[in-house]
Amino acid sequence: MSSNHSATSSRSPPHSITVVVRVLDEFEEAASTPFGSLRQVVDAMAVEMHAGLASEMLLTFVDNLPNGYETRDIKAKHGTYETYNILLEWNLEF
Asked: What's a single GO BP term from this record (predicted)?
């Protein structure tokens, strides 16, 4: 090993990196959710899902599909050099 490499590896990280790592560690600890709480959420979701699937479902359907003859009206335009936004109102006439 060269003396330059050993000198580089023995240096401590800059203070700003140390502070960031400490703040992230503190945030991770403060934001962590105990396993028991996560388990309760999973169990409650499973109960609700099974209850929803146990009841009779409503039959739903789409009675009209777009056919290419739809029209649209331009209601507002706003543009800059980078972006151009258009608000369209669709008139679906089948």
From this structure: carbohydrate metabolic process
DSSP one-letter code for 56: P
Tell the residue number behind the tokens 């028991």, with chain if given: 36
pLDDT at position 11, please? Answer: 72
As a three-state string, the secondary structure of 14-63 is CHHHHHHHHHHHHHHHHHCCCHHHHHHHHHHHHHHHHHHHHCCCCCCCCC
Q: Is 36 exposed, middle or buried (0-12, 13-18, 19+ CB in 10 A)?
A: exposed
Give the integer Cα–Cα distance in Å for 87 and 73: 9
At residue 63, the 3 state secondary structure works out as coil
Residue 1 is predicted with a pLDDT of 47
Domain segments of the chain as ranges: 3-91
**Comparing C-alpha atoms, which of 68, 60, 73 is closest to residue 93?**
68
Token pair listed for 1: 């090993």
